[in-house]
Prior knowledge:
Elements: H1 2-67, H2 83-93, H3 95-111, H4 113-125
Amino acid sequence: xxxxxxxxxxxxxxxxxxxxxxxxxxxxxxxxxxxxxxxxxxxxxxxxxxxxxxxxxxxxxxxxxxxxxxxxxxxxxxxxxxxxxxxxxxxxxxxxxxxxxxxxxxxxxxxxxxxxxxxxxxxxxxxxxxxxxxx
Length: 135
């Protein structure tokens, strides 16, 4: 049942791809026939190639904009950071220290799991950031 649905899906995707290719070729030939009387056969080929390059560039720009990662939501200044935010900031700001800490935490977890719990609790509780004057 699942294999049959997958095969039908793949056949449908293939049919759509082939029909899109036929449409592109037909449009290219139509453009060629339209501009051939004005610029000749070689010029018409160049116009078709330029139109194809323009289309590919436009599609590339659209896909590149769609692939851009979303911006993280802005936090309010008085909103406390979550544990995940603190960990990500620590790894970004101090990558070598973070790798060393990960290795030490792994060794501690192998030797004595209670040390790992203590280290995690210390990191999670940590220090509160200093309050700004006037608040």
